[in-house]
Amino acid sequence: MLGTIGVSSLAGLVLGVALTYVWLKRSAKNSFVHLELEAKAKAKVMAQEAEHLLKSAEVKVKEKALEQESDFQERVHKVDERNRTLILQNKELEESQENLTRLETKLLSEEKKLASLEQQKQEEIANSIDVMQNVSAYTKEEAKAYILEKVETQSRADVAAIVRKYEQEAKVEGEKKANYILAQATTRYAGDFAGERLINLINLPSDEHKGRIIGKEGRNIKSLEMLLGVDIVVDETPGVILVSSFNLYRRAIATRVIEILIEDGRIHPGRIEEVHEKVLADFEQKTYEEGENILIDLGLFPMAEELVRLIGRMKYRASYGQNALAHTLEVARLARVMAAEMGGDEKLALRAGLLHDIGKALTQDLGGSHVDIGADLCRKHGEHPTVINAIYAHHGHEEPDSVESAAVCAADALSAARPGARREVMESFTKRVKEVEDIATSKPYVTGAYAINAGREIRVFVNAQKMSDNEAVLLSKEIAKEIQTKVQYPGEIKVNVIRELRATSYAK
User: Looking at the domain assignment, is residue 303 inside a domain?
Assistant: First the structure.
């Protein structure tokens, strides 16, 4: 019984082990199949990625190959171009060499001909001497002298012809060289056109400021016009007033004074005089600094202080509508280029060009010729004689005595004559207005005179302590009569003689 149970248990154990083995084997098989499928899927994905990478690499390789091919073709093209250039240059060099060889051969041939002709001439002279000695009573020395005289006469005629020929060639070559120098100067320097106007426009924060500028019963605007010597136009144009004057320096000062008064807000006669004095001092300093900066830029510093200040002041001077400072700088730079082309002193030409019109900075105050004023100024401050000669020569008062003076004269004509540089109408107007002011200031006891209202009115200020009211009336008639006699103008000119007495004292 027990033996039967033991066998049964063993059989059950064996059966369990067998079943477990079968189950484990089946499970392992299933796992293997799953892993196999997963591995195949991964392998497929990796194959697709590898194929994609391979295609991308092939595309990049093709692009790189195309790039290299393009670069190679470009280099080949450049090499071909260079080779063609070298071939052309070699060909030109060979042609030049051939030309030189032909020229040398021709010169040698000409020299041989000349030597042959000289020998023939000497032989003919000797023969002629012998013939004349035999035929006439001339001795050998007399015959030789006679023949030489004849030969000299004929030679002089030949020499004269040669001289005329070379003079003509020199003239043609000189014109070509002059045109070349002018072309070089104008192409290497291009100046801006600077046209001048007769008015400045001042913007106002509001139209209320118009009333404040005019003042009660017009006292502010009268003070401004009397002190500044300009015409102030307050019309219906919103937000602006106009400052009019033919004198650029005076107009610039007036514009700055009014701008400061508008910013400050205090506008009355006392404040106007205070601001005017301050602006005058600022402008004097500013003109000196501008002149100094110009000289430093050109490499001409230092220079006499008065000349430095006048160079800066030329910014506020115009001639035929062309700004005097712009014209001066243009002439200086053109003269420097021309002098360099002709082998002259560039720096001296630059200095002479800069100072050739320096007298114009004072003509509005002193009157007279800017040439004489400029020459006297430069002579006073010990400037180089070439500079003084250039001042006289650029208006034909003297002949240029150097390359530098000639360069300044040519540069001045070039700067003034180029299209758009000048306007004759404005210059004739400013000249007429200046004549009117000069007539008024030439009278005794006149302290100042300003043409305003586009030259249709002149205000004359006289010393109230030395002139009575009745004399002021007579002076206005005298000035009007002289203007009518000496000045040509359209319409009429109103003459206002202003006699004002001021008493000033200080409470301490």
Answer: yes
CB atoms near residue 443 (< 10 Å): 16
End position of a domain, from candidates 285, 316, 336: 285
Question: 298 and 412, same structural domain?
Answer: yes
Instruction: List Cβ neighbours of 57 (8 Å cut-off, separation of 6 or more).
Output: none
In this structure, are 440 and 488 located in the same domain? yes
DSSP β-bridge partners for residue 199: 244
CA atoms within 13 A on the CB side of 223: 22
Task: Please check whether residue 243 lies inside any domain of the structure.
Answer: yes
Above pLDDT 70, what percent of the chain?
A: 79
Label residue 312 by pLDDT band (50, 70, 90): confident
| Residues 6+ positions from 292 with CB-CB distance below 8 Å | 301, 308, 312
The last residue of one of the domains, among 380, 408, 425, is: 425
Is the separation of the CB atoms in 332 and 402 below 8 Å?
no
Q: What is the pLDDT of residues 238-284, one digit of tens each?
A: 888 888 877 778 888 888 889 898 888 888 888 888 888 898 888 88
Over residues 156-204, the pLDDT tens digits come to 556 556 656 656 666 666 666 666 565 555 555 444 443 345 678 888 8
**Residue 14 in domain:** no
Looking at residue 502, what DSSP letter applies?
-
Contacts 24+ apart (CB under 8 A), 69-76: none
Dihedrals phi, psi of 319, to nearest 5 degrees:
-135, 115
pLDDT value of residue 190? 47
Number of domains in the chain: 4
Q: Is 207 helix (H, G, I), strand (E, B) or coil?
A: coil
* Domain of residue 486, residue span: 428-500
